Amino acid sequence: MNVLLWALQVGLALFYLAGGAYKLFSYDELAKVPATAALPRAGWSALGVFEIVGAILLVLPAATKSLPVLTPVAAAALACEALALSVSNARYSLQLAATNPLVWTAAMCLVAAFVAYGRYVLQPVA
Q1: DSSP state of 31
Q2: Which of helix, strand or coil describes residue 44?
Q3: Which residue, among 95, 13, 114, has the nearest Cα to 59 in the 3D structure?
Q4: Measured between alpha carbons, how far is residue 63 from residues 1, 9, 102, 113 in Å?
Q5: Whether 115 contacts 78, CB under 8 Å
Q6: How far apart, in Å, are the Cα atoms of 61 and each of 57, 58, 72, 125?
Q7: What is the domain count for the chain?
Q8: What is the pLDDT of residues 11-64, one digit of tens each?
């Protein structure tokens, strides 16, 4: 279980680093998607910073064993953020396709929630 949780943590961290950097540095490309009208540029930039910090907190505290409780807290916070983005994306498209952001944010929400549960209950980092 520990190996599975570590693999999910690293995978989530990479996805959230990429997504956060995209929101932070590529707003012009992001603005072409209709669902982005829900937030102004500053809001998307704040979400980008939040995702980058969350990605770092998914791995670093558990790897260094310095405040490992931050790992499940970060996973839970990222799950809540992904749930909010899923609700926002659902307002614009319910089409089930790999290119739909709803599919990706919902999947990220479920994986982040599982990591949070796993690190709180199943296999806490000691």
Answers
A1: T
A2: helix
A3: 13
A4: 16, 11, 31, 19
A5: no
A6: 6, 7, 10, 9
A7: 1
A8: 999 999 999 999 899 888 877 777 677 788 898 899 999 999 999 999 999 899
